[in-house]
Amino acid sequence: MIQSTQTARGLWTVRLNRPDKANALTPEMLEELIDTVDRAQQARALILTGVGKVFSAGADLDAARAGLATSPLWEDLSARLAALPCLKIAALNGTVAGGANGMVLACDIRIAVPGLKVFYPVMRLGYLPQPSDVVRLRALIGPARTRMLLVAGQKFSAREAYDFGLIDRIVEPEDLMSVAGDLADPTLDADPDRAAAILRSCS
């Protein structure tokens, strides 16, 4: 349910592939994502996307009831992805919900289709958000809008997410992956050490 491909130039593309369940995440999928990130240590750039019209509905409901909602796997995945020493681009093919926000926030650049919705219903569901998600949200959109998302349970549209600084570009669905590839091209063409140094300087 996790697909990954690599090119000779060092571009990794990682896809959530469970479209019949809105790419809802199971423990096995999170573990596979962690393993994929660990294998991508030599990647020059990585694009994270989903199959279908939803990036991810967050935790699979049955798995959440069985304990996934409070699993350390979420924090482990976002930490490893954030630490990956290459450019990471989230190409959001649709809505991002709940814990799936963590891997998106751990990326360096976020682009999304116009139909994107972002929500993180921890208050309604009775769970705590992952600590690093709150830190990254505050850094991107500020404390008040973080409260809108987490405390007031608001859904952000693509335009709101762009205006707030949560995503960096709105892209038509048919152009999503080509734009993501274009964003990765300068890094793939550059000297690896120089590209890594420039990326580090932006953190």
Give the topology, please.
Layout: E1 2-6, E2 11-16, H1 27-39, E3 45-50, E4 54-56, H2 61-65, H3 73-83, E5 87-92, E6 95-97, H4 101-105, E7 109-112, E8 117-119, H5 122-125, H6 131-150, E9 156-157, H7 158-164, E10 169-170, H8 176-189, H9 192-201
Parallel strand pairs: 2-3, 3-5, 4-6, 5-7, 6-8, 7-10
Antiparallel strand pairs: 1-2, 8-9
Helix pairs in contact: 1-3
Describe the overall structure.
The structure is a single chain. The chain has 203 residues and is α/β, with parallel strands linked by helices. The protein has one domain (2-201): 2-enoyl-CoA Hydratase, Chain A, domain 1 (Alpha-Beta Complex). It has 9 helices and 10 strands. It has helices spanning 27-39, 61-65, 73-83, 101-105, 122-125, 131-150, 158-164, 176-189, 192-201, and strands spanning 2-6, 11-16, 45-50, 54-56, 87-92, 95-97, 109-112, 117-119, 156-157, 169-170. It has a 6-stranded mixed sheet with strand order 1-2-3-5-7-10, with helices on both faces. It has a 4-stranded mixed sheet with strand order 4-6-8-9.
Quick tags:
203 residues, alpha/beta, 2-enoyl-CoA Hydratase, Chain A, domain 1, 4-stranded mixed β-sheet, 9 helices
